[in-house]
Amino acid sequence: MRDAKVGDNGGPPLEEEDPGDASWKGWIWRKKRKAAWKTPPREIALRRLERAEALGMTYKEYTLEILERGKYL
To answer: Tens of pLDDT along 27-65?
Structure first.
């Protein structure tokens, strides 16, 4: 098991660890990432796209900001 460091988001390590442990953490990480990037309802997606374009960002960049910070720009 690795020690958590400042800025560590709990994702899977870049280097291989114990194969049994790493595969479980990797599976959980992929599952949670997929859930976070799930397509929102049409109205929300269009509102985000409109706001992203007004800020000069792509939809993906804007959505990433929402996921990272937990607040809307």
So the answer is: 888 888 888 888 889 999 999 999 999 999 999 999 989
**Is residue 64, in this structure, part of any structural domain at all?**
yes
Please count the structural domains in the chain.
1
Whether residue 65 contacts residue 59, with contact meaning beta carbons closer than 8 Å, is answered with: no
Distance CA 63, CA 49 (A): 9
Distance (Å, whole) CA 27 – CA 12: 9
Q: Can you read off the two tokens belonging to residue 14?
A: 């870049």
The answer to whether position 57 is within a domain reads yes
The pTM of the full predicted model, rounded to 2 decimals, is: 0.56
